[in-house]
Amino acid sequence: MSGYVRRPEWLKLSPLDSATLASMRRLTHQLKLHTVCESARCPNRQKCFAEGTATFMILGNACTRSCSFCAVESGHPHMPDPHEPENVVSAVAQLQPKYAVITSVTRDDLPDGGASHFARTIEAIHNYDPAIMVEALIPDFQGCLSALRTVTDASLAVLNHNVETVPRLYPEVRPQAEYTRSLEVLRRAKLVDGKLLTKSGLMVGLGENQKEVVDVMYDLRQVGCDLVTVGQYLQPSLKHHKVARYVPPEEFAEYEDIGKKLGFRYVASGPLVRSSFCAAEVYLLAAQSSTAPDPVTGSPEA
Fold this sequence. Notes:
Layout: H1 18-30, H2 36-39, H3 45-50, E1 55-58, H4 84-95, E2 99-104, H5 115-128, E3 133-137, H6 145-152, E4 158-160, H7 170-173, H8 179-192, E5 197-204, H9 210-222, E6 227-232, H10 249-262, E7 266-269, H11 279-288
Parallel strand pairs: 1-2, 2-3, 3-4, 4-5, 5-6, 6-7
Helix pairs in contact: 4-5, 5-6, 6-8, 9-10
């Protein structure tokens, strides 16, 4: 794609508060941690940091894949830090959240994709405080079922795996991923634990059309996905995939209505919505709602 699409007035971002950012950066630096909020340049990090929440990104800050939309650095990562689970707990102890979101870079270099490190981190949080609910935003583990089971066995509130975009755009947006594999991760998670809430997210404005977005939402429901997020893609730098268009708020409202009709427990759809945006609130609302019978298990998900 060529050309520059000017950001509309309704998508202007508020200035970042240096003091708020510095406070969170001090915490993560001291504990040798990373947040996807910072590494992926999330537009909501000001709000989340001010509220004392963050999505911790484990397994380092270098990804073995090179998706054209993502600001996280691609490269050759170091071996996992064995102290990282305890360091995450130290951060959690300071921030005192009731709901924690843990994600990671993709680690195709590790035999289990980093699944055991996810499990140790989740278990460390539960050992600190069993009342804290944990959402795991995982990579695809190259489709490995045993790796997926390692994470789902760690007592999760939500298993999150993003499809990110429509299948037609995978070769240019997610060249090392597969759309059907991502759907299979979500389907298998439901088969492993039918009561586990599953979640996925996609970006719009990458060059897809409305029908393709709706088709993805339909596909997600067919594999039993409970929660879906839809947000505007924002280009992190000039070297990343260009924004094809800025989707107007009314179109996001349409996606929300369609998602509800498809049977999602909760749909978060808006320009600044991201996968872990208001994750605790989304979980609580979803846990209180009911849906149509699960397409995978054939039984209600409540």
